[in-house]
Design goal:
about 425 residues, alpha/beta, Aspartate Aminotransferase, domain 1, Aspartate Aminotransferase, domain 2, 2 domains, 7-stranded mixed β-sheet, 14 helices, 17 strands, globular, binds 4'-deoxy-4'-aminopyridoxal-5'-phosphate
């Protein structure tokens, strides 16, 4: 198939530099081709504007003030919470806790559930997890004497469902699973895993960090107890994220940090605590981050998500096909359904060197272990290069990636 036989419409026509100002610049004298959205999405203008407006006009501390700016800041902060609630279809804003990011959300759950684990209990994760959904469970197991079990990854990058079902036993207490692998792009059939785990009575925790920007999320229809994600992977700012928890599950978590805002009354020796979500949000929150995240939600809601999803899937097919066509490129986890990202190696060339040469061509990809070292160990590679897609990417971006890869191979091998 020739490239031009496979014309893929961009997710959004004429989106590029008008909406994402970072794309207006050149890198090393070349047009910026940003293929690193899985690490962090570029920020669209409406999000930048919302943060700037908040910072320049409305900034004050939330919840405790009676003056106009504080009331405005509080309204914006709580509006953002409502936007997030709507975005994931949670039943109530009490189920939406703002955190620093997916990492903090997952630590909050692992620490909290870890306090209830008994020696011999089992926590199931997959061998595909980002360290953020692996190390906190290792820590929880080390503290409690529980045992960590792993759903194996097949050669094609998919998870082994039958092996998972064999792991389920009366000892199993928690399933903590990624919805989309950041390292390989594998789209995990999350409904199947959550449903099986629920039938077996497990608490279910979903790491949605790589999923939220790429399709609708409905935590109620998914039926999970907890769902974690980060603002910056869905076109919002860094330093803000979300822990969704089904009310009863979230309310049963122990306190996270003590301080202002999470209390009801305090004496010199005792305290009583606020209701959700405040009881898990001690201290002054990241107000501008929340405002930016709310704007990111509205930005995504303003798009035709079905059309965008279709266009992203087509571009993903094009990217995979373009990489697989080259005999000197090896896609890791070839064959797995993927969302947003694909990992590959050029045999005999270190991924870091590939990334450095690509940067000279203005092409930004991520290289390394992608905070998923066990995935690298599973596939016997020290590192991979990962190209990942955002709304602004086009077929021309993929073609430039391939041209830059060919130049890198020429230079490095
Ligand atoms: N889970 C997955 C699948 C991720 O891709 C990431 C970020 N790379 C995280 C968790 C952690 O997100 P953050 O660093 O924003 O807390």
């Amino acid at each position: 198939m020739k490239r031009d036989e496979h014309l893929v419409a961009p997710a959004l026509p004429a989106l590029a530099a008008d909406v994402f100002p970072a794309l207006a610049q050149q890198v090393h004298g070349q047009r910026l081709v940003y293929l690193d959205g899985a690490a962090s999405k570029l920020m669209p203008q409406p999000v930048i504007d919302a943060i700037r407006d908040y910072q320049s006009r409305d900034h004050a501390n939330v919840h405790r003030g009676v003056h106009t700016l504080s009331e405005r800041a509080t309204a914006l902060f709580e509006d953002a919470r409502e936007s997030v609630r709507r975005f994931v279809n949670a039943a109530s804003v009490q189920e939406i806790v703002f955190t620093r990011g997916a990492t903090e959300s997952l630590n909050m759950v692992a620490r909290g559930l870890g306090e209830r684990l008994q020696p011999g209990d089992e926590v199931i994760v997959s061998a595909l997890e980002h360290h953020a959904n692996l190390v906190p469970w290792q820590m929880a197991c080390a503290r409690s004497g529980a045992v960590l079990r792993h759903i194996p990854v097949r050669d094609d990058g998919t998870l082994d469902g039958p092996a998972f079902e064999k792991l389920l036993s009366p000892r199993s207490k928690v399933l903590a699973l990624t919805q989309v692998s950041n390292a390989l792009g594998t789209a995990v059939p999350i409904r199947y895993f959550v449903a099986k785990a629920r039938q077996a009575g497990l608490i279910t925790v979903v790491d949605g960090a790589q999923a939220v920007a790429h399709g609708p999320v409905d935590v109620r229809s998914l039926g999970c107890d907890f769902y974690a994600f980060s603002g910056h992977k869905m076109y919002g700012p860094t330093g803000i994220g979300v822990l969704y928890g089904r009310f009863e599950a979230l309310d049963a978590l122990p306190l996270w940090q003590g301080g202002g805002d999470m209390i009801e009354t305090v004496t010199l020796h005792t305290a009583t605590y606020a209701a959700l979500p405040s009881r898990l949000e001690a201290g002054t929150p990241n107000i501008s981050g929340a405002v930016g995240l709310g704007a990111a939600v509205r930005f995504l809601e303003s798009l035709d998500r079905d059309r965008v999803g279709q266009a992203e899937a087509q571009l993903m097919d094009y990217l995979e096909a373009s990489l697989e066509r080259e005999p000197w490129i090896r896609v890791i986890g070839q064959g797995a359904p993927k969302i947003g990202a694909v990992s590959f190696v050029i045999d005999g060339v270190h991924a870091h060197d590939v990334g450095t040469v690509l940067d000279q061509f203005g092409v930004a990809v991520r290289v390394g272990h992608h905070c998923a070292m066990p995935v690298m160990q599973r596939f016997g590679v020290p590192a991979t290069a990962r190209a990942s897609l955002s709304l602004h990417n086009t077929q021309a971006d993929v073609d430039e990636l391939l041209a830059a890869l060919a130049a890198a191979k020429e230079r490095l091998s």
